[in-house]
Amino acid sequence: MNLPPVRPIELSEIRAARRRIAGTIVRTPLVRLELGPEFPEVRLKLENLQPINAYKLRGAANAVALLPEAERARGVWTISAGNAGQGVAYAARQAGVPCSVVAIETAPQAKLDRMRALGAKLLLVPYAIAWKTLEERAYPGVEGTFIHPFDDDDFIAGHGTMGLEILEDCPDVAVVLAAIGGGGLITGVGSALKALRPQTKVIGVEPETAAPMARSLAAGAPQEFTEWQASFVDGAGGQSVFPRMWQRMQPIIDDSLVVSLEQTRQAMRMMAEKARVISEGAGALPLAAALAGKVTGQGPVVCVVSGGNVDLKTFCELIDRP
Fold it and tell me: What pTM did the predictor assign?
């Protein structure tokens, strides 16, 4: 398969994406989380307030809008644990084209239901098959134009629009923390931040059960995470870092931190208690890292709450534990 070479995402692309998707996405608020003097100054970028309750709509709306008419007319398909599928399905519905999603069968029911409600045809597969399909960019019986949920210049440029908003609302931001799954979110946000405020640190966060980027940074090359385990943090982490995404992330991010599932659960509970925010596991990873004292330096720390698509029963069980 002849893929275009990996290249930097230009600031001009991100600004153009912002204009293109302005009528689809929400300019989400950046709110201060009052934690007390013993904690860093934390602000939450509430992407859980997007129409699909996740940041993926930014990239999906931009990618679908930029498809040539002939490719759009064939319909679109993607691979997803839930949020990318919702984003592509939402954008496809707006464009009036059919959408299919090769979806991970263990995704929360809330995500599966939302994808179907948006008109997507779902093909449920095990996690390992979905990860393999991300590499192969093909799946038997699925037709239409494939939109990669992270290794796509237009998808990444859409996510970069979040970086523009963060800098407008917090010009002196010292650190931005974002979960890493495939790497599209942090590549997009980091591309905007490094272009406009290179001294801002861009740091990824992964769960202890799926942390290939931290391992890759330590090794200086993309690595597999052979001991991968499924958990309630279904929207972040992975079995490996794809070589192309390593090329994208490595020049941009300053570090990747690892947090425990218990730290993540406590961060979900704290956001619910102090800010009345419902976050899924992946969306709580950045705050978990900040609360654990893993972030050093002076100045505001922005935690990207990447999504809030979690079954309410599961959410209540998680935050109700003492």
Answer: 0.96
